[in-house]
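Q: Hi! First time doing this. I have a protein sequence and I read that you can turn it into a structure. Is that right? Here it is:
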Amino acid sequence: MPRLTVNDRPVEYELDPQTPLLWALRDASNLTGTKYGCGNGDCGACMVLVDGAALRSCLITLEEAEGRFVTTIEGLSRDRSHPVQQAMVAEQAIQCGFCTPGIVIAAAALLQRNAAPSQEEIEQAIPNLCRCGVYPRLVRAIQRAGRVERRQERISAAPAPGIDPEDAAKAVPAIAPPEPEE
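A: Yes, that's right. Below is the predicted 3D structure, encoded as structure tokens:
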């Protein structure tokens, strides 16, 4: 059984070693922030950090991930406090949000290597596809996150995740639980 460390926790998957890491994360570990986009490595929606490098989890098998350290968007920062997450919100570089986890992971890996990337370096390091076309705002967000990492700037915190289900049901009646039958 493949063993690896996911979000700082040791995990042993009782899955075929040829299973793509993407499906182990989503289906076995319920880490659904890692998205399935194209399945062939073109879009970057499934990007995770593997030993600190941004890799497409649809292209890595569990066998290839054996013994490695994997960080998903959930492990990067549960409270959205990572500078890239903060800057993405501050620069309004998120629209539909489907590609956002993969972009944040790729940007975090870039800033680990280079906290002051140029626009060209960002464009090279972020291969992710975004149907909403947020690319100019994305470049600004990554440069801003770099300034935060270099302690040249601060960003007010984005709201913490997790709305209470009862509050969500009040705001969106369609998701309210059905009334009990008498």
